[in-house]
Amino acid sequence: MSLLEIDNLSVDYRVGSGSLRAVDHVSLRVEPGEAVGIVGESGCGKTSLGLSIPMLLPGNAEISSGSITLADHELVGMSEDQLNQLRWSAVAFVFQGAMNALNPVQRVDRQILEAITAHEAKADKHEATERVLQLLDLVGISPARAKSFPHEFSGGMRQRAMIAMALACRPSLLIADEPTTALDVISQAQILALLSSLRRSEDLSVLMISHDLSAIKRVCDRIIVMYAGVIVESGRTEEVLGRRGEPAQAAHPYTQALIGAHPDLHGERVLAQGLPGHPPDLSKPIAGCRFADRCPYAMPVCREVVPPTLAISAGHIAACHLLSKGAS
Amino acid sequence: MSVRYLAKKLTTLVVTLYVTVSFNFLLFHVLPGSPIQLLARSGHYDPAARAQLVKLFGLNHSLFTQYFIYLKNMLHGDLGFSYVFRKPVTTVLGGAIGNTLLLVGTATLVTILVGVWLGVMAASRAHSLTDASITVTSLGLWSMPDFFTGMILIFICGVWTHILPISGLVTPGLVTGPWGHFVDVARHLVLPALTLTFVNAAEFSLISRNTLVDVMVEDYMLTARAKGLRRRTIVWRHALRNAMLPIVTATALYVGMILGGAIQVETVFSWPGMGLLIYNSVVQRDYPVLEGCFLLFAIAVIATNFISDLLYQVLDPRVRRT
Fold first, then answer.
1. CATH number of the domain that A54 lies in?
2. What residues make up the domain containing A155?
3. Which residues of B touch A104 (CB under 8 A)?
4. CB distance B318–A119 less than 8 Å?
5. pLDDT of B259-302, one tens digit each?
6. What are the backbone angles phi and psi of residue B174, rounded to the nearest 5°?
7. Would you call A93 and B241 a contact, using CB atoms and an 8 Å cutoff?
8. Terminal CA-to-CA distance of chain A, rounded, Å?
């Protein structure tokens, strides 16, 4: 039984008079204790996918099809009151490091305490306060700093406080959307190490959204590559991205391009390759493969027929015509 | 809040007050017309009487000396002598200030409560029909001058329906107990206070709506939703607290506006406060009284700005100096 099951999820945004499909019939599973990474460039729908799980999409977005099941609860169509009970207690969120995710005029401990008291009406005030300090300690923030305001913290500390807050109601799923973006490399490393250790000690499932392949590699068991609203490849991180010293076995040209755009510290010294062009305009219908315009291997069939999703090995799938021909 | 910050703000306050007081002195000395002429209420007067008046009011001294006498007298609580009432200005102001405080205070309280509440209602349903109606109504009310709104209210409530008194503070000749007096004053208060409230609450609702709409899309609002907090908690605890800062600024500016509005409204409703006093003093050229009124209004505005500066320190930890 998967913890999170997303089936055929589509998310549409109203834009002007038309609409834009940011997430197009995406299905994915997250098992208990598993860490899954979603990677893709800006606008590929990864954040919309993440926000749709606790139904936090902005007002101009709607889920037009599909279902989201979290620990046997169907979230699509659930009432706001019921959702509020599941939010943070079943699924917590860590937002982008660059964001003002903490309220600037409230002390940090108060913000964490608020999450606890909102979900545990009978919580003992003293015990709850004690738990806040434990949580901060868990992420490496001294209890002496608990009464600080967010602006008195460094970017890395703010993000660690955010993680402490995310753990406040002992969620089973943690969604981390670009948790290390805009942090310095030392803080990035700390946050990633913290996430890797917490998912084991706190028995968490993690869904990490990032454009940073090395961050995903560091934390996640499985990787899902999204392009223009669809999943183009998914598989074990080690297999898709390659283990240290071993070549990546990415099957989709887009995944290969992403890996190529990323310098590898341990591999052969080659110049990182850029990926020219832009993702397609999602407000217009697209025939065939969405990546065809930027794909160096594009064939005539790619612009006409949507590529089928094919299994490459156990748990490794990709959607590309090159694979169905058996040539590459 | 540090003592140093407070000291700095107090220094600014004192300097601003001093400059205002000096400007107030200068303003009335550069105005055309001789004070003696005004005092005598006539162009023809006996030279001996003139000399006596000049001496009585210290006009034989140089402007510089007069300035220091003016400062000295002010510090002693002496604001001069009214030409019209033939009483000390402080006595004249004392009779009016309470009525203005009652009117402006009531209007301010209602303005802030109703204005902010309407703003919250509009912002939490942004771009809905509720939002549109509140915004359009506010814009309409805000665009109307106080005296115009006042006259419409007089027409509807006084002339048409006779449900409320339209002028004065009390019903003339009414003999009644303390409770009866309270009710009578309250009934007289409704229309002028309502007029001031209409214009200003409209402004407050627009400001709070717009700040709240901006705050609503802040990242921490998404966090608050993700935490599973109830909508009311999100709006009142997280959004409004952050939106308070521009609202406090608006309140400080508003005091100047409402005092200006009080002149019009008190005139329209014959409310015996400082606004009506200013109007009458302008008509009758009672300069000492005008000077006194200007001074009080200036003090009110400066003091409110001082308080709003201090409130900022309390409301926004980011500007707090340690």
1. 3.40.50.300
2. 4-324
3. 220, 242, 316-318
4. no
5. 888 999 999 999 999 999 999 998 888 888 998 999 999 999 99
6. -75, 125
7. no
8. 36
